[in-house]
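Obj.: predict assembly geometry.
Materials: sequence records (below).
Method: joint structure prediction, all chains together.
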Amino acid sequence: GQQVMQIPQYQHVQEGEDFTTYCNSSTTLSNIQWYKQRPGGHPVFLIQLVKSGEVKKQKRLTFQFGEAKKNSSLHITATQTTDVGTYFCAGPGSGTYKYIFGTGTRLKVLA
Amino acid sequence: DVKVTQSSRYLVKRTGEKVFLECVQDMDHENMFWYRQDPGLGLRLIYFSYDVKMKEKGDIPEGYSVSREKKERFSLILESASTNQTSMYLCASSLSLGQGSYEQYFGPGTRLTVT
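Observations (raw structure tokens):
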């Protein structure tokens, strides 16, 4: 079945270092979404990418959708302790309405 | 502001018990979802509903059932709880972003322990 994988599973960085998580789908996606889950919290929608090769920025966060629409990345520049959490990508599943979530990347930022 | 609420944050049940997890959303969303979250496995879809009384199986429906009698409420039922159902359960509802895409709004989660 359709799978969405993320690497790495965990990442520890010093505050101020950059961070990147990668998302790979077994199938071509019409769009890709990213969510952030703070420790003890629930996933919160960050952004959606739709076009092949699309790049979007939210302050220090840069999101990219691959040319083949099968992979995506989230890059954080100069991490801060507020960036701590688990980042999930999600792509549409077969049929309608449902999304397949990636395995998540857990980010820890050391002050 | 969309609000998705779940009936309990923490729940401890015994093996074999019938367990009900309730979810309510206040934004008139058509679609609602139940996921379970386990370390290293991400979020896995159990069931979803796109309308009242309508439901579809997700990726891991075995051992679970659902009920949606009212638009705002979606219940997850564990007919006979087992220890491998110990997990974090997340409910979500979704808002259309157009062109067949949906933004999901999650509840706070219920951490269920089955002993």
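Conclusions so far: The mean pLDDT of chain B is 94.
To do: check interface contacts against the pulldown list.
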